[in-house]
Amino acid sequence: MRIYLFALLVALIACSDGVTDKSIGRENPQAYRYDGLDMSEWELAWADEFDYDDAQLDENWLSKQGDFESDWVKGRRWRKNAVVVDGVLELRNERNEDDPHLWSSASVWTKESFGYGYYEARYKYAGAYGTNNSFWFWPENGTPEGQKECEIDVNEGHYPNIMNTNIHNWTDTWVTPSGRKTHHDDQLHHTLFGEPEHTIALEAPVLAEKVRLRSSNPASIHIREFRVLSAGENVARAEDATLTTVGVFDRLPSKEEYAVDDNPDTRWVSAKHGPKWLQLEWAEPKSIDAIELVNGWPQANGAHRNLIADYTLEYFDGETWSEITTYNASEIADFSEDYHTFGLEWNEDYFKWYLDGELFHTLRNDVCFTDVSMLLSMAILNADIAGPVTDAIDGTSMKVDYVRYYTRRGEDN
Hints:
Blueprint: E1 42-48, E2 61-63, E3 73-74, E4 76-77, E5 82-85, E6 88-92, E7 94-95, E8 103-110, E9 117-124, E10 131-138, E11 150-157, E12 163-175, E13 181-190, E14 197-215, E15 222-230, E16 233-234, E17 241-245, E18 268-269, E19 276-295, E20 297-298, E21 304-305, E22 310-316, E23 321-328, E24 340-346, E25 350-355, E26 358-364, E27 373-381, E28 397-408
Parallel strand pairs: 4-8
Antiparallel strand pairs: 1-28, 2-8, 3-27, 5-6, 6-28, 7-8, 8-27, 9-24, 9-28, 10-11, 10-27, 11-12, 12-13, 14-19, 14-22, 15-16, 15-18, 15-19, 17-19, 20-21, 22-23, 24-25, 25-26
């Protein structure tokens, strides 16, 4: 990871962008301060460094063995796809035409349960869209009577550098007016690495009837401004301009027109799943010489969240679509190329999430008070939740260097 990018994490706001607050129970205190991790306060209580032969994995971990899990998970997960090689646990993705489920991956969890403390896992993502690279906690040994069935996601990582932090309360559920069963959760996408502002100057003007942006970004894209310039004039706001999009994410107060309203304090947030796009069309062709794009959402000290992972810009001249430019955030930060340490401090009052020892999110603990198992999971997801599923996934793997659990010195957990 490039050292200068750490500055983005310093004093990063732990919040839901000030737009919505989906915190569970009590108000989320939203810690706006920087708080580096002081490991001298912690004592190692359990670890797996994977410095052994593959067969020894079963001493500490249990494995999925082909069980159907969820409509969201594609294929099945097996012990054979969890392989220890040269001190690294590889959770491998395989595509096999002879497999009735086509795809296979792996998920393992600790035989032992753990309570409050600091947890971390050092790993690389699988290098393809469509993959879910997870370090998370679940009460595999059962939830005591009177406690909530609580899922804690330290990171559900999506290629190339998206982090997801989740707290799910699976005990308190209800049915929505549409008939869908749902539950309390607190889910945030932390895409911290990329560029918020993009200016694309064309070498020569082009005559366009339409201009569109397409993206395979996992989760929603957040467009604060999309400007199409003709001799300095923003024709995205021309009287004959028509804007269409893939739709709006219904859990945020967003509108399509916010993408082109010349107000960077508003944003269009796309539908969450599937391909994302917006398109401008004019009754009369426009001579286009530049496009400006502002995306993501600003946080403290100039940092941003929800930065777009990729896009393609195109124009239509009345007969054919032609590419203007492409962008891929993996060129800035690719978590499948470099190891990163994903950590969580958990106590009866708070959760604190860390990336490489730097705090980036804090949340009030209102539901998780019972021991859990640690899980390492590689999954291929349906519905483009983690981006499109393609053959590029075949042969990739989530690579785990170690997992460690610490208790605070002087405290009885």
